[in-house]
């Protein structure tokens, strides 16, 4: 019964985050065309790059520097994509299976799929959360990218519709149940403050990397960390 409830929650979280995040693909489609890319170039970026921060960084550099800035755009996108490597290491035991299966999961290893997977209570629910979110966003993001590229001039600024806030709200919904312990609150607040300070001072995506490092350092320095891990391991064992 508990396993069925965890599975339903994984599906619910995955679909909810997929819908909220995919809708913001309209913004990328519109901005890509406005930056000088044609519809197909914009869509190919979503199909092959598929990491929002890197895509927006690429388009932003091209928009300000034209095609002459292409090397800088590629470098910026690659720098922001580094975090996905860290996600891949964390998700490898969640995905499990053969090497081929783990490699097939790589394109879907993004912020959202990692967050949804880690928010679940058991191994099976984590796998479901990962795949539902990753595949769901990939399909939805590409469809909405095409829509934004085709209708960019008609839609205007997609931020006027609050689509940028929808994805953030979905993340907050995942985070909220984990804020029942003081150590989680401290880590979250520390990372949030650092990200807020770094946002106006660094290029898009970098605050996420900095905040992640801060969260790890603060969590490692927290007293009672070992006992919390023991409790989490016990809970996970019971869920299995």
Describe the structure.
With 240 residues, the chain is an all-alpha fold. Helix content is 79%, strand content 0%. The longest helix has 33 residues, at 123-155. It starts with a helix and ends with a helix. Mean pLDDT is 75; it is low at 225-240. Keywords: Cell membrane, Membrane, Transmembrane, Transmembrane helix, Transport. InterPro entries: Brnchd-chn_aa_trnsp_permease. It is a multi-pass membrane protein. The chain crosses the membrane at residues 15-37, 57-82, 128-152, 158-175, 182-199, 205-224.
Structural class: mainly alpha
Order of helices and strands: HHHHHHHHHHHHH
- CA(first)-CA(last) distance: 12 Å
Number of helices: 13
**Tally of extended strands?**
0
Mean pLDDT: 75
Task: Please state the CA-atom Rg, rounded to the nearest Å.
Answer: 19 Å
Q: What share of the residues lie within helices?
A: over 70%
Can you give me a brief rundown of this structure?
This protein is an all-alpha fold. The protein is built from 13 helices and no strands.
Please render the helix and strand layout as text.
Elements: H1 2-23, H2 25-34, H3 39-48, H4 52-65, H5 70-80, H6 82-95, H7 99-105, H8 111-118, H9 123-155, H10 163-175, H11 182-198, H12 206-221, H13 225-239
Features:
about 240 residues, mainly alpha, 13 helices, disordered C terminus
């Amino acid at each position: 019964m508990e396993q069925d409830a965890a599975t339903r929650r994984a599906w619910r979280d995955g679909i909810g985050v997929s819908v909220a995040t995919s809708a913001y693909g309209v913004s990328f489609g519109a901005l890509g065309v406005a930056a000088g890319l044609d519809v197909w170039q914009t869509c190919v970026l979503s199909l092959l790059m598929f990491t929002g921060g890197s895509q927006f960084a690429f388009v932003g550099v091209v928009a300000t520097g034209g095609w002459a800035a292409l090397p800088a755009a590629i470098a910026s996108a690659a720098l922001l994509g580094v975090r996905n490597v860290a996600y891949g290491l964390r998700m490898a035991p969640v995905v499990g299976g053969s090497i081929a299966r783990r490699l097939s999961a790589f394109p879907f290893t993004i912020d959202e799929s990692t967050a949804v997977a880690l928010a679940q209570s058991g191994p099976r629910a984590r796998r479901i959360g990962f795949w539902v979110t990753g595949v769901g966003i990939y399909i939805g993001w590409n469809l909405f990218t095409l829509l934004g590229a085709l209708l960019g001039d008609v839609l205007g600024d997609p931020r006027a519709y609050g689509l940028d806030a929808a994805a953030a709200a979905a993340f907050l919904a995942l985070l909220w149940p984990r804020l029942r312990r003081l150590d989680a609150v401290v880590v979250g607040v520390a990372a949030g403050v650092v990200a807020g300070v770094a946002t106006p001072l660094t290029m898009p995506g970098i605050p996420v990397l900095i905040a992640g490092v801060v969260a790890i350092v603060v969590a490692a320095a927290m007293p009672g960390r070992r006992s919390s891990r023991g409790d989490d391991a016990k809970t996970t064992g019971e869920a299995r």
